[in-house]
Design goal:
By secondary structure, the protein is of the alpha+beta class. The protein has 4 helices and 3 strands, in the order ααβββαα. The model has no long low-confidence stretch (mean pLDDT 90).
């Protein structure tokens, strides 16, 4: 029987936060938290495209929705930690900051970065999601059936 525990779940969570961060926000939080350490590029930021797939109804047969532009990079800190990033759009500086945060989260600075970068990003994204939901709820129409007395 296979072990179903995802050992990378925590990393997936912070990578998702960084990938969805508004332009320049992750870099601003990182720069406010600490001085950027030195690193070497394993893969300098490069722009490309990926095919986005979807499923009808979320569970149906997969289909190709279209292409999306992404920026990716990988770097290595002097201590040996490796960071990766895939960011939507043409944002090389954001990809660099995200990869740097990913690498630093794997070091002793991880707890400080969680409090100063990841938690504010998560709170901002939750607030934006709530605002979007409230805006959508304002347009909700409740339909009801009137019962006629003859039935």
């Amino acid at each position: 029987m296979e072990d179903t525990i995802d050992t990378n779940a925590e990393r997936k969570c912070w990578m998702g936060l960084l990938a969805k961060a508004p332009e320049g926000r992750a870099a601003a939080l990182l720069d406010a938290a600490l001085t950027r350490p030195g690193f070497t590029w394993l893969r300098a930021p490069e722009i490309g495209s990926v095919m986005v797939r979807g499923r009808a109804g979320g569970t149906g047969a997969p289909f190709n929705l279209g292409e999306m532009t992404v920026t990716r990079c990988a770097l290595k800190l002097s201590g040996g930690a490796v960071g990766h990033a895939y960011i939507q759009g043409r944002r090389k500086a954001c990809a660099e900051a995200a990869a740097l945060i990913d690498a630093l989260m794997q070091t002793h600075a991880g707890a400080d970065l969680r409090a100063s970068v990841l938690e504010p990003l998560a709170a901002e994204q939750a607030a934006a999601k709530q605002a979007r939901a409230a805006k959508a709820a304002a347009t909700k129409v409740d339909f009801f059936t009137m019962v006629r007395g003859e039935d």
